[in-house]
TrEMBL record, chain B:
It comes from Mesorhizobium salmacidum. InterPro entries: Brnchd-chn_aa_trnsp_AzlD (IPR008407). Pfam families: AzlD (PF05437). The chain crosses the membrane at residues 6-26, 38-58, 64-93. It comes from the Bacteria. Keywords: Membrane, Transmembrane, Transmembrane helix. This is AzlD family protein.
């Protein structure tokens, strides 16, 4: 407990320790921030709107989905619903990290949840599991650089995006499917991954052909989730954890 | 205020609800039903798949090559490596097959 007190009072060094851990995330997310800014302008956003979306939503994949559907002139409430659907995974992060940061003041917790991204959750959860306290200063050191670079690079991408002459030759229009495929592949170690992907792919293609965009997103996603719910728990790998 | 502005505000609120909601709701239960947990586990792969699959219908040789390379690289590399590999293949292939 004495070490806890020291680390809590030594907030400054904790902060910089977090900043050090944030650097790989800053580097890895930079191209996507620039890409988002460029695509946002390409899909009809202004530079300020691209900056605002990065500053307020702060969720890469959901921002990409949002601007793509916006560019297809989908109804606004469906754009918002899609952002919600893509970000829904944060519910699990939120439930997991809650017990690690319950000792913070409420305002600090509220801010902590705002910057709860995939890497933020992964690194904080790893620290907690190694037996160390997840302090506010450390958590902020980890998250703040990623946030600041994200919004500045989004604005730069939006400014730069206007200067790209031939988006087809540069493949800008097809970079998102590649990026999303990369994210899908990133989850491949999860139980039921292949059946869920196959079910969602088939359902979304059929829905795309029949009902049309953007309903193929919701219909395809529901098909995959339902399959995971319906299959016996011994296949989904959640029973062993109980 | 423009429609875009309101989409951003509503999207931000919806996103914040997902980030704080799990703590507010799920932490009140002692344990989650295994089937619900299995469903929640499937959410990211299910949603993201629907953003790729329909693109296959309109994809030409360049796009197919890029997706295949992305998938193969993903077996070894990280997100950045597979994204860059896919993007490079796409740009190169489009120089030849348009």
């Amino acid at each position: 407990m004495a070490t806890d007190l020291i680390s809590e009072s030594g907030g400054k060094s904790d902060f910089w320790q977090g900043v050090r851990l944030s650097m790989p995330v800053v580097v890895a997310s930079a191209p996507f921030a620039v890409l988002f800014g460029a695509l946002a302008v390409d899909n009809g956003f202004s530079v300020l709107e691209a900056f605002l979306m990065s500053a307020l939503v702060y969720g890469g994949a959901s921002q990409m989905v949002g601007i793509q559907l916006f560019g297809q002139h989908v109804a606004p409430w469906l754009v918002v619903l899609s952002i919600f659907a893509v970000n829904f995974r944060h519910v699990l992060y939120s439930a997991g990290i809650g017990r690690r940061i319950a000792h913070w003041p409420v305002i600090s917790q509220a801010l902590g949840y705002f910057i709860l991204t995939d890497p933020q959750f992964a690194v904080a959860e790893a620290r907690a599991q190694s037996g160390q306290t997840v302090g506010f200063a450390w958590y902020l050191g980890l998250g703040l650089p990623v946030y600041l670079f994200w919004i500045v690079e989004s604005a730069l991408g939006a400014l730069f995006g206007k200067l790209i002459p031939d988006t087809h030759a540069l493949g800008i229009d097809f970079l998102l499917p590649i990026y999303f495929l990369g994210l899908v592949m990133g989850f491949r170690k999860r139980p039921l991954w292949l059946p869920v992907v196959v079910a969602s792919a088939c359902a979304s293609i059929v829905a795309y052909k029949t009902v049309g965009s953007p309903w193929h997103v919701s219909i395809g996603a529901i098909a995959g989730v339902l399959l995971a719910v319906i299959l016996p728990p011994r296949h989904s790998g959640v029973e062993a954890k109980r | 205020m423009s429609t875009t502005f309101w989409i951003i505000i509503a999207g931000a609120i919806a996103t914040y609800l997902t980030r704080i909601g799990g703590h507010l709701v799920i932490s009140r239960f002692d344990h989650i039903h295994p089937r619900v947990e299995a469903g929640l586990n499937a959410v990211p792969a299910a949603v993201l798949t629907t953003l790729v699959a329909p693109e296959l219908l309109n994809a030409g040789p360049a796009e197919w090559a890029a997706l295949v390379v992305t998938a193969v690289v993903s077996l070894r590399g990280g997100l950045m490596a597979m994204f860059l590999a896919g993007a490079v293949v796409l740009i190169l292939a489009r120089q030849f097959v348009g």
